[in-house]
Description:
By secondary structure, this protein is mainly α. Helix content is 74%, strand content 3%. It has a two-stranded antiparallel ribbon with strand order 1-2.
Amino acid sequence: MNGLPWLTxxxxxxxxxxxxxxxxxxxxxxxxxxxxLAFSLVALTGALCLWKYFDAASGExxxxxxxxxxxxxxxxxxxxxxxxxxxxVLLTAIVVPLSILASWRINDRAHIYHxxxxxxxxGLFGTFTALNFFHWFLFWELVxxxxxxxxxxxxxxxxxxxxxxxFIYTMVGSVTLLLSFLAIRLATGSFDFIELADMAKxxxxxxxxxxxxxxxxxxxxxxxxxxxxxxxxxxxVVPFHTWLPAAYAEAPGPVTMVLTGVMSKMGVYGFLRIxxxxxxxxxxxxxxxxxxxxxxxxxxxxxxxxxxxxxxRILAYSSVNHLxxxxxxxxxxxxxxxxxxxxxxxxxxxxxxxxLQMFNHGLTASALFLFVWLIEKRSxxxxxxxxxxxxxxxVPVFTGLMGIALFSSLGLPGLNGFVGEFLIFKGxxxxxxxxxxxxxxxxxxxxxxxxxxxxxxxxxxxxERWSQMPDLTMFERTLVVVPIVLMFVLxxxxxxxxxxxxxTVVKMVGQFSF
Length: 514
């Protein structure tokens, strides 16, 4: 694409956009909203251009940018995207404008709010494109700061404790992640993800850690667990998940859209980009405990969702449940797969399912939290499972569209949620049949609590309190139709995404199949 640094430009658009917006006066709310939307749409256009010019047949990194930064410390400014990165960039570029439009009526310090959203988007773009740990870690932490303030300043009545818990959990994870990579840098002299993956494939990282630091039999696992904790908190993996329900419940609806739609994917992305290629040996050593963690994440979070009575908390636990399937697949593909027929094919199916599930869940979960936000606006902040009843009689369009999103989350064939989960189970069953079988309990419980939402909120006798509840306005219908259309498109034509990521997945399988 003409040799321009397109990835840098993509990151700088929301970064400088936030600087411009925050410089506006508090009274210039309309201008702040308009500029924020404009910058996010420019970023979306850039992401679509990357998608258009991306060579899907190549599993190599593309749109590469590489410049020396601090050579003595092995620090480079290095950017690049493959199918995984590009998919997450596109997801970010879609969800953020939807979040901005959903928050159009937020008037309290609107210029600061919208600037933080743009900086959050810039951090996400950087996280999904950076390939040097130091450079990547800056973006990883940049995402934390605006997310904290968006919850703390614009959240619900318990926003203070929720924001603090979110910050402490993720910061502890970041500290252990940083310590692990400082040890790797000390042993190998490199922060580069691609170089480290090549070293890991040759079995050099563990040996060098033992030579430089000592504890030859334990140091590799210790460094691995430090990095694992950093990503496990972000996903989150049970039992490191307790910050998530409070943060999702107390954050404003449009912010929760970004938290669940994109930020929750950072942890899974870290597993795929960093943990799996750099620590395959250690992951195999603790594969059975990791598989149990994935199964517990799926089943326990589904049961926790069933026990909730707050719609946002139900969907928060549901988000943990759906990402648990991604963990199940990426842990399963680490195994040696002895005796499995065509193991590389099964691993490729599972990883294709992971990438598709990440994208599809981002669309569906953000749409569901958007619908809950619209319910809150109509009900004066109520969102309890028992607060409504029979409202399909007065808001039929709202009911129909939210029903589509709920059935997508349920995994109904024909909608986007089905394809990713199908590929995950198709790949995992031959690789780890016991884990796949136990995880189907999560599918059953998910069906129960999602159908319970439909029954309690939309069906039955009409609660007369809501007899005058307005249906979706034309603006709101236009807003929700984007993710709804994509649910149908990807449900019926998943090759639109699979065709872009398959070469990347094949290369990933080749990296750790040794």
